[in-house]
Structure formats: C-alpha cells, structure tokens
Design goal:
Strand order of the largest sheet: 16-17-18-13-19-20-21
Number of strands: 21
Distance between the termini: 56 Å
CATH class of the largest domain: Alpha Beta
CATH topology of the largest domain: Rossmann fold
Radius of gyration: 23 Å
CATH architecture of the largest domain: 3-Layer(aba) Sandwich
Shape: globular
Strand content: 15-25%
Helix content: 25-40%
C-alpha cells in the first residue's frame, strides 16, 4: 500500500501511509485507538475508498470497491466487530454467497455440512454446523470468523483483534494456525493491543500514529517500552495498580442465586467503594451472572439485596431505576447505537429516568463536561459513535452511566480491544468512581487485569463459586487453580 490518504468530515484518518507485506510473514500493525489501523484495513478490503494512494497485490495494481472484490483477489478480513448474521446457521454464515450448488442452482447441504465440520474440527470447535450464529458466545463467533478465512484459501489474511474474546486455549489454537499459514507462504497482517501477542506472533511491526506510519521494525529489533513509545509518541505508564480504598458497608448482596444458564447457588457481597473482580474460563457463567443482576435474565431462585433492601429486578429498566449500571462485553451490538450521536447515546438512560423533565440544552452542558472529563476524542457531541475508536466507544458507555448516576457498576471486559494508554485511563476512571462510593463488579478474561484493579477476586467454575481471594492473597497461580475447577472452595490462604 503506497501513499494512502483518507479524510472523513473533520478528521484526517490516514495521511500518506505506506506498508508492505511479504509472503510467509506475519506483520504486526499497531497503534493507539484512533491511529488509523482499522481505516487502513478497510481501504485494503474495499470497505472504504481512499482519497489517494495505490494498492498492489503480487505486483499488480488493484482497486477494490467492495469486500467481495478484495476477497476475489485473495484477501480475507477477520474484523474486530463481527459480521455474522445471527438468524443464519454457522454453515450458512461460512459459505454465504459461495455455497456449493447443484446444476439446478440449489444448495448442496450435505457438502456444506461436511466442509463446515472439517474447518470447525481444525479449530478445535465443538459446534454444530447447523447451530444458529445468534446462539453462540462472542468467543465462538470470533472463531467462526477465523474459520471463514481458512475456508477460501486466502493468500493475505488480515486479523483485527482476533483474540479479544478468546480463552488462552483458543489463543494457542490460533497461534498454531498462524504458524501453519506462514509456513504455507501466506501473508498475515495482525492487529492487536496485546503486546505479548505482538512480540510472540509477528516477524515485523509497523506503527501508526495519528493517521501516519511512523516506522517499521523487525520484531527482534525493538522491545516493549520502545514500541509503546513509538505508538504514543511519549512514555506511557501502562501498568496501573489500584490503591486500596476504604470500603463501606455491604451495598449489593447475592444470596444463593440461581440464574441464567449454569449460574447455580452463587452468594457474594459487594461493598460500597469496592472493585470486585470475577474470574473464570469461558462458559463459567461470568456474563450470565452480570445479566442476572441487571435483570436481563431474572434469578430463578435466591435473594438479592441492594442497600439492605430486597431487590429482584425483572428487567433492565427496573435495575437501572435502582441505580444498577451495566457495560456489556459486546459494546457495539448490546451497548451502543452506532448510528446515533455521542449526545444521543449518553442521554438515553437519563432521558428514561427524567422523562418529561428532560431538557436537552441543560443536559448538553452536563454531557459536555462528562465527555471532557473522560477524554472522549471526537469533533463534538453530535459526532456519530460509529466513527469513534474502540476506546472512545467504551468511554461513551461509561459517560452514559456517570450522567445518569449509579450505585453499582457492572463491567464486562472493560478494556477489550483497547490500547495500552487508554487502558490506564479506563482503570483510573473506575478507580475515581470507586472513591465516590460506587461499587464495581468487573469481569475480565485477562487475569493480569483482575489482579491489578481488584480489591477482591471471586472465581466461577461451571456456574458455581470456586474461590475467593483478598487483594493480598490473590496471585496468578491460586486464582487460576480456582478458575480451572478444584473441587473444594479455594482461598488465597489454601
């Protein structure tokens, strides 16, 4: 890609960007949120048309006006925001537009099923090809997206945050696939904010900053701190350790809760001003527990209390009315209206609470203050959320709850797909809310993250509590032991 330029209203997204990819190479493409990585890949894949610049594939100049044209030239794109159609089956999603057909133009369903089974098996996925995509977890959807690229034997594979929702075991499967594709001579562009993956998976790294390519280095020639400096243009304090706070009385209590799916007999307490981390493997019931508290799937049995009073939400509206806030893992489809403005997204919950008393002019001033405090980077409050980076989208959801007011904040994967600098900002924002007395429950697949920010950690295994650790007791070894299902309840003191 040579001299690629692209301008959106008010934003110079790409400025004279050039990158090269060789066969049999994994190129890491890194940069802070908003640096231009996804826009550059959208240009490569025909989703966005560049204002200037040229693309060459195997030395031949190409112009792609659609994703299909790029695919026909051997480019596969595994996007960060997944593109499966929930109402279609896994096999229909994998072969959409390229179904095996009979001479009479009907689909060969037996062949479709067999091919899907083969590719799912290669990924170690125990999923029925006939399962509806909408029934899959976010992690399994991500693996199905990866399966798409394998099916059509692409020679260039773009992976945008492919591990953001994957377990360690699934990441190992992906790593083996990447090694296999590299040996086959394919070129892979790998985008990730996880520095350990960039250094483990890639041969060379190109860095984008503010829409420009600021350099490319062999992975062996640069260390972690040097790469972060290239990304940010400054030294960034990546590691954040929450200071201990003086916690107050019990704010939220779950007593023998039986909830959606596997959640069985869970009893935990959350104190005012505390960050409670919840750890567990995929399928352990972490998300289902948060959705039970938020009223998406009301508890089947058990008792909840909030501020010492009985609390049994039968819908998110009731939970919000009582001061419960929720930031979901899949923020794009479950937390935001991407085609709405920042103002509209942040206003929603407060409007529901205030109803006829809501005054947009007054609240615009309030939202502007919150936006400035959170450091949301956008031309203005009327900017559409779909044009924001992942980190800024996360801040928009957080701004919504700060604007509306809350007692308890439930956060599912707080920094999924977010760069190192913005991660620290998010941690500090959670800590500030903590100091104001907000009780926070954080679910994260990153154990290091839980250990950094939590006052206390509980673990789930197959829907049941398997461990509880104070800040001093918690370490990777004992928490992982509890997450993987030791029969007896595990504590930090053994």
């Amino acid at each position: 890609m040579e001299n690629i330029g692209k301008t959106f209203p008010g934003v110079k997204a790409l400025d004279d960007v050039g990158i090269e990819l060789y066969g049999g190479e994994v190129l890491g493409l890194v940069g802070e949120n908003g640096a231009g990585k996804s826009t550059l890949m959208n240009v490569l894949n025909g989703i966005v048309q560049p204002d200037e610049g040229k693309i060459y594939v195997d030395g031949e100049e190409k112009e792609f006006s659609s994703l299909i044209e790029a695919q026909n030239s051997g480019i596969a794109y595994i996007q960060q925001e997944l593109n499966l159609i929930d109402e279609l089956s896994v096999q229909e999603n994998l072969f959409l537009g390229k179904e095996p057909l009979t001479p009479f133009r009907t689909i060969k369903f037996r062949e479709l099923f067999k091919k899907t089974q083969e590719v799912l098996k290669s990924l170690g996925l125990n999923i029925s090809p006939r399962e509806k995509a909408g029934n899959l977890s976010l992690a399994k959807k991500q693996m199905v997206e990866i399966a798409k690229a394998l099916l059509f034997d692409a020679k260039i594979i773009v992976m945008d945050e492919p591990t953001s929702s994957l377990t360690d075991e699934e990441i190992n499967v992906l790593y083996k696939l990447i090694c296999r594709m590299r040996e086959e001579g394919k070129g892979i562009i790998y985008i990730s904010h996880r520095m350990e993956e960039i250094f483990s998976f890639t041969d060379r790294i190109s860095v984008l900053r503010n829409g420009a390519c600021v350099g490319s280095k062999s992975t062996k020639e640069i260390d972690h701190d040097g790469l972060v400096r290239m990304m940010a243009g400054r030294d960034v304090e990546e590691r954040f350790f929450k200071e201990e706070t003086q916690t107050g009385p019990v704010l939220l209590e779950l007593d023998s809760i039986h909830g959606q799916g596997k959640v069985e007999d869970v009893s935990i307490q959350l104190r005012k001003g505390e960050i409670l981390g919840i750890g567990g493997l995929m399928g352990s019931g972490r998300t289902e527990l948060l959705e039970t508290i938020f009223g998406i799937f009301p508890p089947r049995e058990g008792r909840l209390t909030l501020d010492g009073k009985p609390f049994k939400p039968t819908s998110p509206y009731q939970a919000m009315d009582q001061g419960i806030a929720y930031i979901p893992e899949d923020r794009e489809s479950k937390g935001l209206f991407l085609d709405f403005s920042i103002l509209a997204n942040v206003s929603l919950t407060r409007m529901e609470k205030d109803k006829s008393l809501y005054n947009e002019a007054n609240h615009r001033i309030s939202i502007d203050r919150v936006s400035e405090k959170l450091g949301i980077v956008a031309p203005g409050l009327d900017s559409r959320v779909e044009n924001l980076s992942g980190g800024n989208r996360q801040k928009v959801i957080l701004a919504r709850w700060i604007h509306a007011g809350m007692k308890v904040l439930l956060v599912n994967e707080p920094t999924r797909g977010i760069d190192v600098g913005t991660k620290t900002e998010i941690y500090k924002l959670l800590y500030d809310l903590n100091k104001q007395g907000v009780g926070i429950i954080v679910v994260s697949s990153e154990l290091t993250e839980l250990l950094m920010i939590s006052d206390r950690i509980v673990t789930l295994y197959e829907g049941q509590l398997s461990g509880e650790f104070s800040r001093k007791e918690a370490n990777k070894e004992v928490v992982l032991q509890a997450m993987t299902g030791k029969k007896e309840m595990v504590t930090g003191t053994g």
